[in-house]
Amino acid sequence: MDPGRDRDGEPSGVRRAAERDVPPGGTEADESVTNPSDDVRVRRVGNPPPVPDVVEWRCPHCAMHHPRNSPPCSRCGNPTLERVAVVLDPPEETVGLRARALAAGRAAVPIAGLMLAVVGGAVVLYGGLAGTNTQAYVASGELPPSARILVVAGVAVLAVGAFLLFAGTRQPREPL
């Protein structure tokens, strides 16, 4: 039997091309490569496994780590130690767009809280100063109602600003 022909005597590529409605010229992908891992042009997609940078030794009995292979184990006396690969620089995790937006939003919360606290303090200061400069304060010794409203509003804005300032710096709880 001729190596380039199948059992019926036809060229092997013609029959396969006719079965798939492909012209014998071969407009489909190169059929000579049967296994993609054998092709040097194919590159694997994804992250390669991490390369161990340092080797440590661990006792299989008590799991104590040792910097060098010097049996027996100093904790339990086991005569053998197992080799453990330690990766010094683990690959960084890819962060999606949503996670980056949440991180940026979390970073902006303390700044907004600081600005609100400054504005609240300024309103309290202005309300107190403006209220004490009036004739009614001098005569009665009490702040007028408009100055009280400014002071109360300033304290409220100051409290909200302080909450945002310190709430934005807390770490979120880990899910259980």
From TrEMBL:
Keywords: Membrane, Transmembrane, Transmembrane helix. The chain crosses the membrane at residues 107-129, 149-167. The keyword tRNA processing does not apply. Residues 1-10 have a biased composition (Basic and acidic residues). The keyword Aminoacyl-tRNA synthetase does not apply. InterPro entries: NOB1_Zf-like_sf. Residues 1-48 are annotated as: Disordered. This is RanBP2-type domain-containing protein. It comes from Halomarina halobia. The lineage of its organism: Archaea, Methanobacteriati, Methanobacteriota, Stenosarchaea group, Halobacteria.
